[in-house]
Amino acid sequence: MTELEKGPQGRRRGRGARERILSASQQLFREQGIGHTGMDQLCAVAQVSKRTAYQHFSTKDELVTEYLRRFDPDVLPGVFDNSELTPRERLLAVFDVPTTGPDDLTPLCPYIAAAVELNDPQHPARRQAHDYKRAIAARLADTAREAGAADPEQLGEQLALLLDGAAARTRVLNADAFRTAAAIAAVLVDAAIPR
């Protein structure tokens, strides 16, 4: 990088700043929480000035909302849109959450974490979390309907609750709860879908 491409204190500037800010927010918000991440730290990790950060995101709230929006905009497309799986298999594939080891378990769902940290029900990120969780339950219900479930909305809500519970339990206990959740989900799915 040439001296002309460096900003204050030798930081990078210009091209890619927005992506670096979002990447830094993803890392820091998930590691230490939204409330514990200050803009100074975020800018240092993203290698941008505060001025540059606020040119891309006028407030931290706007940044948090965009951070959530970018996680999974299509609601698990790799699962729900996988035509190689039967509807029953897609319902259970939601619980195939990869973990690489006991020290690198999936962090708490970012939508749950944001909803817990942000007290204002009208906060745009809180609404984003609400909409995403509703979308997950709706996709599960649609897939349950496709599988022939007697009450697809109920099954969708049950599986959504089980998924969120597994995410929280995995984080709190530092243990993989998704395998147990998958076994419970199989029982629920088989009970709801007539043979």
Keywords:
TetR/AcrR family transcriptional regulator, mainly alpha, 62% helix, HTH_TetR, DNA-binding, Arc Repressor Mutant, subunit A, 2 domains, 195 residues, Tet_transcr_reg_TetR-rel_C_sf, disordered N terminus, Homeodomain-like_sf, elongated, Tetracycline Repressor, domain 2
What does this protein structure show overall?
It is a single chain. Helix content is 62%, strand content 0%. The chain has 195 residues and is an all-alpha fold. The chain has 2 domains: 3-69, Homeodomain-like (Arc Repressor Mutant, subunit A, Orthogonal Bundle), CATH 1.10.10.60; 77-192, Tetracycline Repressor, domain 2. The longest helix is centred in the last third of the chain and has 24 residues, at 124-147. The model is unreliable at 1-9 (pLDDT under 50).
Give the overall shape.
Answer: elongated
Number of strands: 0
- Main beta sheet, described? none
End-to-end CA span:
64 Å
Number of self-contained structural domains: 2
Q: Strand-and-helix sequence, N→C?
A: HHHHHHHHHH
CA radius of gyration is 20 Å
Protein name: TetR/AcrR family transcriptional regulator
Organism: Kribbella karoonensis
Keywords: DNA-binding, Transcription, Transcription regulation
Pfam family, one: TetR_N
What is this entry, summarized?
The protein has 195 residues and is an all-alpha fold.
Question: Helix and strand layout, with pairings?
Answer:
Blueprint lengths: L16 H16 L6 H8 L3 H7 L3 H10 L7 H4 L6 H7 L16 H8 L6 H24 L4 H22 L4 H15 L3
Helix pairs in contact: 1-2, 4-8, 6-8, 6-10, 7-8, 8-9, 9-10
Protein name: TetR/AcrR family transcriptional regulator
Organism: Kribbella karoonensis
Keywords: DNA-binding, Transcription, Transcription regulation
